[in-house]
Amino acid sequence: MLVVGARRQGLIVNLTRWIGAEPDSEGVGARLLQVEADAFAATRPGRSLADVLADIAASYLEHDFDADEWLRHHQGGPTGYAGRDPRATPTARDRVVRGQAFAWNPSAPRAKAEDTVLVGDGLPEILTTDPAWPSRVVRGLARPEALPFA
What we know:
By secondary structure, this protein is of the alpha+beta class.
């Protein structure tokens, strides 16, 4: 697992990629990408970070994870001038703003998804995508898969 937080001209992006990962016989990665898709769908202008996080927490259970899986690692939040600016918590009152960058990172044992996206009125724009990286489409967005060893 490669986790990157990169800064350029004062702005930060975050991403996670897997290289040579073991086969996902239990479908954990695919289910986690559904949680991430729910996080993207929940991140709409005007909503509080606490409300978005509540939707993410509910999504874990909906996709057959333990109800407290979301508590085992922070789920992310807005990004830009800091790695998370601020980190989403159940009490965070900050509101999602159109044009704001987010990096959600749902995770489970042996699985994590993370990219920096820009919030708009529909599907988010993924800022940290690489068209050469293997991917699959999840709810209309190309999501990275593990890069196999050659």
